Protein 1
Amino acid sequence: MKILVIAEHRGGKFKKGALECIAQATRLGGEVVALVIGGPDAKAGAASLGKQGAARVLAATADWLERFNGDAYARIAADVVKAEKPDAVLLAATLDGKDVAPRLAAHLDVGYAPDCTKVEAEGGRLKLVRPLYAGKAYATVKLNSSPQLVSIRPNSYPLLEQEKGDAAVSDVALSISAADVRSKVVEVEAAKTEKADLSEAEIIVSGGRGLKGPENFPLLEEFAKEIGATVGASRAVVDAGWRPHGDQVGQTGKTVAPNLYFAIGISGAIQHLAGMSTSKVIVAVNKDADAPIFKVASYGIVGDLFEVVPKMTEEVRKLKKG
Ligand SMILES: Cc1cc2nc3c(=O)[nH]c(=O)nc-3n(C[C@H](O)[C@H](O)[C@H](O)COP(=O)(O)OP(=O)(O)OC[C@H]3O[C@@H](n4cnc5c(N)ncnc54)[C@H](O)[C@@H]3O)c2cc1C
C-alpha cells in the first residue's frame, strides 16, 4: 500500500499529530511519502520526517505559502495526489487538517473519514474507527473510493520506538500561484502563551464552573505544573471570561486525546465529552456523585475540589521527593 501523509508544521516545526500519522502509516507497511506545504522554511526539517518512516518527502514551498491557506493547500495536495497516485492519504485531524481534508475530498471526488482513532490495514484496504455522538458510539468505516482519505485524531498513535534515518527531500513544481487562490490570510496573531498546545499535551488538567472564579485557577495551575500538564477549561468557564478561548475543550473548542485527563469541577455535558472522551485515562473530581462526568471517568473522586486538588498536589510533591 502506498500512503501519502500531508505533514502539518508551523514554520518548519512538525506537529506531533503529523509525526504520528507517518508512524502509523509506516506500521501499516508499504511505501510512505510525506508532503510538506508551506513557506521556504518548511523544507528545513523536512528530511527528519524519514525518522518516522517516510521514504521520501515532497516539498511544495513558496513565499506566498508561508501562511496556512486551506484553499491553496488543498489544491496543491490534490495535484500531488494525482501525480503520486497513493492508495491512501493521511493527515492529522487538527484545525488545519479539518480545513484541508474536505476540500481535498471535493477536488479528488473521493470519500473522507474524519477524526479516526484507529487506522488498520485489512485486505489491502484501510479499516477505520471513528467516534460518534461524543464518543458514545464508534463507527467502523471502510472507504470505497480511491485514494482513501483519512484524518487521524492526534494522540491516537505513538511515534516509532526505533527511529529511522533521514529521508530525501525533493521539490514539487507548483501548479498554482498566489493569484489563483480565492482567499488570503492577511494576519495571524498567535496567543501569547508559553504553555504546550492542548491538542498535543500528554496530560491535561481542565477546570469547570466548579472553580467558582478565575482567581481559583492557580490551584489547578500549581497541580498541573507538578505533573507536567497543560491547563484546559470547559466552555462555561471560557464564556464567563475566566480563561481564554484557546483553553476550551469540547465540541466548539479543541478535541483532545491525552494519556491522562483531569476534569475538575466539570459536570460532563455532552458537548464537553465530545472533546475529551477518547482520552486514555480520565480522572474526575466533582462534589456531585451523580455528575455525568463520572460515567466516562476511569477514576472518580466525589469531593470538594478545594480540598481534593491541594491534597493531590501535596501527594505528588511527596512522591517526587521520596
Ligand atoms: C452548541 C453548544 C456547544 C457547546 N460546546 C461546548 C464545548 O466545546 N465545551 C464545553 O465544555 N461545553 C460546551 N457547551 C456547554 C455545555 O453544554 C455545558 O454548559 C458546559 O460544558 C458546562 O460547563 P461546566 O461543567 O464547567 O459547568 P457546570 O455544568 O455548571 O458544572 C459545574 C460542575 O462543578 C461541580 N462543582 C461545583 N462546585 C464544586 C466543588 N467545590 N468541588 C467539586 N465540584 C464542584 C458541580 O457539581 C458541577 O457538576 C456547549 C453547549 C452548546 C449548546
Protein 2
Amino acid sequence: MELEKKPVKEFKSRVLKVITETPSTKTLVFDLSNIEFDFYPGQYVMLNVPYEGDILKRAYSIASPPTQKDTLELTIKRTPNGRASVVLTEYTREGDEFLIKGPYGKFVWVPSMGTNLVLIGAGSGIVPLMCILRYIVSARLEHVKATLLYSNTHYEEIIYREELEELDKYSNIKVVHTLTRSWPENWKGYTGRINMDMILKEVEDIPTNLYYLCGPPQFVDDIASMLIELGVDGEKIKKEKYD
Ligand SMILES: Cc1cc2nc3c(=O)[nH]c(=O)nc-3n(C[C@H](O)[C@H](O)[C@H](O)COP(=O)(O)OP(=O)(O)OC[C@H]3O[C@@H](n4cnc5c(N)ncnc54)[C@H](O)[C@@H]3O)c2cc1C
C-alpha cells in the first residue's frame, strides 16, 4: 500500500521548552504556531545544528503525535563524543531557533496498515515508537493493540519512563522493559538483551502482527533475524536504524 506523501517543508522554529528526560536525554519543544506541518507517525525531520562555525544536518524522529498541531517535539540523546547531540542536549535554551526540514521516512504507521502492533526499541529508538503510541491514545484508536518492548542500559536512562507507566494502564497497550547493564533491587522488568524467549512470552500471535524496530543498526538487525526465525514475514517488519 502506497501512502500519499506529506509535503516536505522547510521552516525556522523557536524552542519553546527544554525538557530533561534522563541524565543524557532532552526533549526540545518547537513552535509550530505559524506553520501547518503534517506527518505520519514514525517519520523524522532534518535539523540544522550550528557547530563551531559549521552547520551539521542531523535526522531526528518526531516524538509528538500528528494530532498535536501547535508544537513539534524532538527527543535527543547525547551520543558520547557526538557533536550535534551535545549542542542540542547541553547548549540549547528556550528561544533558540533552528532550521527544520521534513517530514521524511518510510518508517510509518497508519491504522489501515494493521491494528496489531509490536514496537521494539533500544535507547533513543523509543522516539518514533512513542509517537505511534501517543497517536493511538490521542486519536482514541481503542481497536489498535500495541505491545512495546523497550531496552535500555540503566533504569535512569529509560526515556519517557513515567509516561510509559501511564500508557501501560490502557487496556490496548502493554509496555515491557528490559535493562542490560544495571537494574534496581526491586526491578520487575526483564534483565539482559531482548531475546527470543522474551518475545515468545510477551507477544501474542507472533506471525500476524506488524513490527516496528528502531535503534542501533546491530540491534535492529538482531531483532529482525529473531522475528524471521519465529515465523514473521519480512514484509511485516519495519526498520529504522539510527547510525
Ligand atoms: C532516521 C533517523 C532518526 C533519528 N532519530 C533520532 C532521535 O529521535 N533521537 C536521537 O537522539 N537520535 C536520533 N538519530 C541519530 C542522530 O541523527 C545523530 O546521528 C545523533 O544525534 C549523533 O549525532 P552527533 O552529531 O552528536 O554525533 P557525531 O558527531 O556525528 O558522532 C557520531 C559518532 O561518531 C563518533 N565520532 C565523531 N567524530 C568522530 C571522528 N572524527 N572520528 C571517529 N569517530 C567520530 C562519535 O564518537 C559518535 O559515536 C536518528 C538517526 C536517523 C538516521
